Amino acid sequence: MTAANALLVAIHQRLSGNAALTAIIGADGVRDRLSPRPKLPCIVFGELEAWDYSTSTESGEEHFLTLEVWSDGEGRREAQQIAGLVHDLLHDAALGLDGAVLVSLLRMSMRTRREPKTKIYLTEMRFRAVTE
To answer: Which InterPro entries match (predicted)?
Structure first.
């Protein structure tokens, strides 16, 4: 398993294993893609970039991951509540990875917007992770 895949697995386990988050998004609320008629609210794995971050003595990778929080609740409140829980669960978390070591996992940015012509809100959270 690559470090990027191990990171995704660990993040999925952390999010789907949290009772407070599951109470809001449901047991199947963390997904790899958004279906055409999604059950909302949900969290979707978005874009993932991985870069070589090796030194002369250690191998490593730098990962940039976007998590998307989709909500059809009234206003931004639900999307931002979920994003707050995701932040608390992942920012600077010590996750165990299969076949790699997580050096750091930090939220870099967050952006919330309403999708045009709908009542659906999207919060995009961008994380940076370093693995060895």
So the answer is: Gp17-like, Viral_Tail_Comp_sf
